[in-house]
Design goal:
293 residues, Jelly Rolls, 8-stranded antiparallel β-sheet, 7-stranded antiparallel β-sheet, 1% helix
């Protein structure tokens, strides 16, 4: 199914996100036939549990912080540097905070900026091809909020977007408090034509009420999305209508909290500030090659 939102390319600014860990060993009683090698245990390649003192900035060896505005999606925030809008809370979390403010006369595509927030990525610090990628997070709430955990092809500087490919592990827009989206973008299937699906919590629960784990399991020729271990879609080249699959190469990670834009719409009188995207961990492992059940 195509993505329901008319999103335009996200502009790569400076950057930030991602992390990983987890080991899966096959027990001796797994039932594998004699002589068949056991699946290789998944190896942690990137992990950030955001341990550190309250107010500290993110680990600069893992993340870079993007700065500036984003005209491509008509977002309203200015992404700031340092720990102004992205800081540890001293309890093992990264907190990305969106505020209705402009402390330094920041200028945005629409004039004087009305909001600040943060965006982080791992470009130049960590990339990976295939594996399990997850983040455990509590999203903000309110009209105009647009938190995301996603990945871009590391060759974006050479081939541009969408030829680079984009894997949206999780996006949420404030007017859908119970629903998140997972989407692929590439040449011929980007923006409103992205290939994806939605996952909705049961019984009217809101994602902002608690932490949830958002993940993809990425293998040659496939990407599978899950929420709290519940798989809700799998995409392969067969879903692209003959367009090119661009997901067999290194990608880097991104975490951000946007304010406003084409898809979520702008904040209104019902939106309270500040709003926070709270990240418990980011983990990446190599493929966990489990035997069939």
């Amino acid at each position: 199914m195509t993505s329901p939102h008319p999103r335009l390319p996200r502009r790569l600014l400076f950057s930030a996100i991602c992390a990983l860990s987890a080991l899966a060993l096959v027990p001796a009683s797994s039932g594998l036939a004699a002589g068949v090698p056991a699946p290789r245990a998944a190896a942690a390649t990137f992990t950030d549990d955001f341990d550190g003192p309250a107010g500290a900035a993110v680990d600069g060896a893992k993340w870079q912080i993007e700065t500036g505005d984003n005209v491509n999606n008509h977002e309203r925030q200015y992404y700031t540097a340092g720990n102004s809008n992205a800081a540890l809370d001293g309890q093992g979390h990264l907190v990305i905070t969106a505020r209705r403010e402009n402390p330094n006369n920041y200028q945005c595509w629409y004039g004087t900026c009305e909001y600040t927030s943060a965006r982080l990525n791992t470009s130049g610090k960590f990339t990976q091809t295939y594996g399990h990628v997850e983040a455990r997070m509590k999203v903000p709430r309110g009209q105009g909020m647009w938190p995301a955990f996603w990945m871009l092809g590391d060759d974006i500087g050479q081939v541009g977007w969408p030829n680079s490919g984009e894997i949206d592990v999780m996006e949420n827009v404030g007017f859908e408090p119970s629903t998140v989206h997972g989407t692929l973008h590439g040449p011929g299937y980007s923006g409103s034509g992205g290939i994806g699906a939605a996952y909705t919590l049961p019984n009217g629960q809101a994602f902002a009420d608690d932490f949830h784990t958002f993940a993809v399991d990425w293998a040659p020729g496939s990407v599978t999305w899950s929420v709290d271990g519940n798989v809700y879609q799998r995409r392969t080249p067969a879903d692209l209508g003959g367009n090119t699959w661009v997901f067999d190469k290194p990608f880097f990670l991104i975490l951000n909290l946007a304010v406003g834009g084409y898809w979520p719409g702008d904040p209104d009188g019902s939106t309270s500030f500040p709003q926070q995207l709270v990240v418990d961990h980011v983990r990446v492992t190599t493929s966990d090659l489990r035997p069939p059940a």
